[in-house]
Sequence to fold (323 residues):
Amino acid sequence: MPRYYFDITDDSGVHSDDVGLDLPSMEAAIVEARRALADMTRENLIGSNPSNMGIRIRDGADGLVNLVLSVTTERPDGATN
Amino acid sequence: MIDADLQPFLRKLELRDTLSEVEKRALLSCAADEVQYPAGSDLVREGDRPVHSLLVLEGFSTRYRDSPDGTRQITAIHVPGDFVDLHSFPLKEMDHSVGALSACRVLRFPHVRLTELTENHPHLTRLLWLLTLIDSSIHREWLIAASRTAPEQLAHLICELFVRLGVTDLIRDQTFRLPVTQMELGEALGLSAVHVNRTLQQLRSEGLFSWQNQELRILDWDGLKRRGSFDPRYLHLIKEPR
Fold:
């Protein structure tokens, strides 16, 4: 099985993955990344105000796949924080 | 040599109560044959009606349930010296499976002999009962930890394994073997493997432990305990008459 690396971006910066996971295909890697984004969203939204979260999937063959999630709080006065 | 093999198990009991020589011999005489299981195989499967209970002498195992969507939930990690399948003795039909995380060497205790033992030794009966109660207090603790953040949950699990392996004298130089993958840690914590990876990186960068080639080394025990809000009371490590 090919190995996929998942670099994570959140408000504290970019965290490069040096371990990776062996998965059958890029599609399986995307499913895994979506689950991870769900975990990150749950965790980051509790007690903080994150703006952007993302995962970049790297492998040797297919090029990069980016998953990006942004959360905006729109207030009645137009503020977005 | 079976007596030496059983030391981790006896240490677990003797940390919590006093065992007489007669009781130790009675326990030993219940053991039948030894069986080996390769990593990834099942010791017992959901739906089985075992006629033996299994005590793991060597290796890590897990209690788990398969989900209809193809994933699995790990509900316990067992260390050497754990009587992993004492549950099947009174429960009869397995409602979950027990799998080998690493190669496991297992001692089988026929249920007929356990019936005889528990009828003749009320104190040993209470101690075996205690072991399954500690299994359930660990389940309880995992449920509570599941509502915490991933770093807290993971720190808590590592604290627990460190203490449990210490009980059976399997810690050397603050280091123990942890033969689990990030995927398996995810299945135990209810998290994706990718998030486990990120969480491991975070805890390592905080200088709490290192983890390389399945060797986990504790670098800051007090810091790790704080990070995981770890209080070992639920492991019932007090020696008293039971």
In short: Chain B has a mean pLDDT of 94.
